[in-house]
Specification:
Number of helices: 7
Radius of gyration: 20 Å
Helix content: 55-70%
Distance between the termini: 41 Å
Number of domains: 2
Structural class: mainly alpha
Strand content: under 5%
Number of strands: 0
Largest sheet: none
Length: 140
């Protein structure tokens, strides 16, 4: 949970017109960060937690990398990620920036949904009946 009642972000402009233009993007970024932090803190699904960690790292302008990958890379990258952390950041943000979330393993129970997600482009024009017929052999 977010302990603050209000979140303040600078729009880095003194022009009200420019501030109104920048506001939707900044507001969307703040809401995305808060949503990802909430998902990381409350979700029990490893896939959801991993996706939230990737999204949190993206809000700071870095790609998510596993801790093992970071330690085998240059020290400057680890230091740069540590520099992006703020004193008010939560442990979820630290885990996201420093690779503290393990990538989820694909379980057999989620295989049909994963195949459907991967095949979404191929199935985009199928009707409900066609999708049902496509799904049936995969769910057995």
């Amino acid at each position: 949970m977010e302990p603050r009642k209000e979140v303040h972000r600078s729009l880095r402009t003194d022009s009200e017109r420019e501030a109104r233009v920048r506001l939707p993007a900044v507001e969307a970024a703040v809401l995305a960060e808060l949503d990802a932090r909430l998902t990381m803190g409350q979700s029990q699904q490893p896939g959801d937690v991993f996706s939230a960690a990737v999204a949190l790292a993206a809000t700071r302008g870095v790609s998510y990398r596993m801790a093992d990958d970071l330690t085998s890379g240059p020290l400057e990258e680890i230091l740069a990620r540590l520099d992006t952390l703020k004193p008010t950041d939560t442990k979820q943000m630290a885990r996201a920036l420093l690779g503290g979330v393990e990538a989820p393993q694909l379980m057999l129970s989620g295989l049909v949904e994963e195949v459907e997600r991967i095949s979404a482009h191929d199935n985009r024009y199928k009707s409900d009946t066609q999708m049902r017929l496509w799904r049936n052999p995969r769910t057995r």
